[in-house]
Amino acid sequence: MESVFNMLFSEVFMESVKKTPREGEFLKNFSLEPNEKLYKEAVRYLGYKNNAAITPEINLLVQKGLTEICATINSRAIYRYFSIQVSADHCAREDNSRECYNLPLRQYEGIILMGATLGISVDRLLSRAQIQDMAYALVIDSCATAAIEAICDDLQDRLKTIYAHQQRYLTNRYSPGYGNVALSTQVQLLRMLDAERKIGLHTTQNFLLTPSKSVTAMIGVSQFWQKNEYISCDICKMRRICHFRREGEHNE
Amino acid sequence: MNNLLTKFTLLDGGMGTMLQKTDLPSGICPEILNIEYPEVIESIHREYIKVGSGIIYTNTFGANGYKLSAIKFSVAEIIDAAAKIARRAAGEDDVKIALDIGPIGKLLEPNGSLSFEEAYLLFQEQVVAGQKAGVDLVIIETMSDLLEVKAAVLATRENSDLPIFVTMSYEESGRTFVGCNPASMAVTLEGLGVTAMGVNCSLGPKKLFPIVETICRHTDLPVIIKANAGLPNLTNNRYDLPPEEYAQQLIPIIDLGVTIFGGCCGTSPEYIKEIAAVLQSRKPVLRKKLSFSAVCSAGNTVIIDRPAIIGERINPTGKSLFKQALQSHNIDYILNQGISQVEAGAKILDVNVGLPGIDEAAMMRTVVSRLQSVVDAPLQIDSTDPKALEAGLRIVNGKALINSVNGKDETLRSVLPLVKKYGAAVLGLCLDENGIPDKAEDRVNIARKILQAALDMGIKREDVFIDCLVLAASVQQAEVVETLKAIRIIKEELNLKTVLGVSNISFGLPNRELLNQSFLTLALGAGLDLPIINPNIAAMSDAVAAFNVLLNHDVNSAFYVDKYNTAVTAAEKSRPQELSHDIFYAISHGLGEEAAQCAEALLKDHNPLDIVNGKLIPALDEVGKSFEKGIIFLPQLLQAAASAQSAFSVVQKTLAKSGEQRLTKGKIILATVKGDVHDIGKNIVKVILENYGYTIYDLGRDVVPEKVLSAVIEYDVKLIGLSALMTTTLGSMEETIRLVKEKRKEAIFFVGGAVLTADYAMKIGADYYAQDAKQSVDIAKKVLG
After folding, report:
1. What is the ipTM of this complex?
2. CA-nearest residue of chain B to A211?
3. For A4-240, CATH number?
4. Any residues with CB less than 8 A from the CB of B710 and at least 6 apart, and which?
5. Which string of DSSP letters, residue by residue, matches B50-62?
6. pTM confidence score
7. Fold of B9-280
């Protein structure tokens, strides 16, 4: 199925989001320790498919990289809940389009926007390493990516628990630039989170996040359990060139 | 704006908080309200004036050309309307109107992609509009990047005569989001001539106390606090600190000598009223006048109260590799010099990039900007060309040291105004039209002249440093002691900090290291504060470390113990190492040092070129094949490349000694295209290609098409590699190829990046698609041989 988020941040959708957030939280200083999961993710980003190929030298380098990244990050995150109010007018427009037909927007009563960043110190570390030792730079780049994803996973789990108490179900998180969510939605998303002021997260003219190891995402909130709402390669723009897929990985 | 230190000044409180309480439509740009609902803004101003605000901020926090680009009103229209509203609200009351300037909303280079000059122009537009609209002062607030503040301050000073208030926002860690610390803010902004400075937003008064306290310890200027009403609860959109408690928390801050108060997020007229009540019952606390010398980067303040090393290596004089790096725009080479000196203990870095034939000012700008993204040592801008000095000073993120003026009227006239304007410290050399005087007393007289000229210009005594100059012992042995004597007099009589380029002492004599170290120790004993040396030479940095222990500067010998406890002793170092592997093994296993040693050994009975073509390249090829087959992965490929590089530079040095041409297999330009700031892929390709012996001109990231074209022409290059990570920047890639091929039909492009495919590469006019770094080498071999 096409993701519900195909149309998120479309004009129709934006009109249906109530502008004042209902709730949210501002979190900082996630402490992150090097652990097995981070290690596994980091080596996966480096292209290693199995541990057998990892030489002792690379193993040491990744351990060192994880330790340094975990010590360098100055992470901050924010999320806010916005309720969605679908007016009759929007429903009419929905019904006119096949895409909207597949997207029971009315099933979603709200959306959580989130932003998280490792902070600018990681960018400095990365630029410095790229001058001194490119192999190590690549390793810490992967470690940093693993770290920001771990922080987002943490936040998502936390949200799942919070909303489960209210008998609400959450979708996966979708980021601008993935699936069919346009990268340019970054601007609106950051504004709605007041992310610049709250967590120091910005975009460039071309909608790249700065600091670079940052994530923005949205999560749908529904009273109903959405089956088939899993991350599938089919919804991804990168599916034709993704090297994980080339190597045989695939999410149905 | 007089009496800011001796009288309390009350600012206003939150504007956004007040707007949220109205029934205006939320979610619209708050600056539009100045035009569409002026009466609402006016009544908020009035409420603040009623409770005692003596300065009110115009509703223009986000009124810059970038943030307003999506709305139908211009910056000037919004600012004019906002200033008029504020003036109307003030009426006959003695209330000053401050033009509120917030952050632009995009990060400046090198953190983001906005250039300093672009930022300057955006601020200039606001200031010009504000001055025209008749505001009384400018307040630059909620800032996180000191460089952005500097752009705003310069834009204000160069386009108006308005007083400037600056407040930055700090996290509990004591730093802003981009890492600026309060001491650096204080030192830098006082130098730039602002009227008052301090903090706003982020936290409540209590948590801001340590930050405000640090600011008070680093500036004599009036200090501002405009704190939040505690911490926000994003669920109910309220803040947790009630007005009375908020005002009570300000009392310890009043005791620090802070005199300017207001409120930020979550505060309302009730808060200002409570503050007014507290101030009513108190008197401003007079702060003690400070006296200290310091330079800083945004994140690192170096107080000069003990000897500290100025690293001298960023300088092309007598260094052929450095000259080549400047000529081929190899900025990474220069940055590496900076990083390694900081790692070896340099506290300040001298930056000299002057070379005939290059645009020194442009190079200074580039090197300063890039350097401060990788090291946080303060910089010493070193040039004989005032244009290059100013280019560097303008974008230094912090307070720099200028190298140098001397006793000649001409340098004093051309350089001291720059020192004053940019709030730098200055290094004065004890020489004049007649050269370097032999006698200490005559050198001191020149120092006096420099000091007087600086004081006349309004530069503080603490910001004048003197270099008594070293003459080679081989030439003027009798004058060596004169230098030491001059240092002593200058310390005692003039009470100025001293600087000395030490290593000249040994020129023309054997065992230079011994003389350098001995002289350095003598000079430190005479009172030298800042030796300019190569910290990578252990004997020199060791002497400074030892001195700081013996003079009780390095308390508990903490630094010393940390440095030497684990260090390898000389005996261990000199133990000969057996070469256990051949060069092939060393490269393919990423053993850099060993690869270099192997190359050294091979040079004894091999021709340098044979080593490159017969050993290094085949080893790299083999590694490349393993990579293609998926036996090894990218980090290993890069390690192998770095090891080959170590071996390669050994060979290169031998060639340089024998005067042979620098080895190159051909020239390649690399760039990450306009709009894209993710350049790790390009840098990987660069490392690999370099190690195959290609000369790389790396234009960096976010590169405009015109720059690629001019590099192609300037360096006469046929093969160009472009990278782009995002689909949004593929357009720039296409445009770059089109522009260059229009002017240079023979140009050949290879492109790569996550979102590219071979088909797409052809469609945008590229000649080759490189899926990875290894393929880039294959392409280079095919095109250049």
Report:
1. 0.87
2. B111
3. 3.40.109.40
4. none
5. HTT-SEEE-S-TT
6. 0.90
7. TIM Barrel (3.20.20)
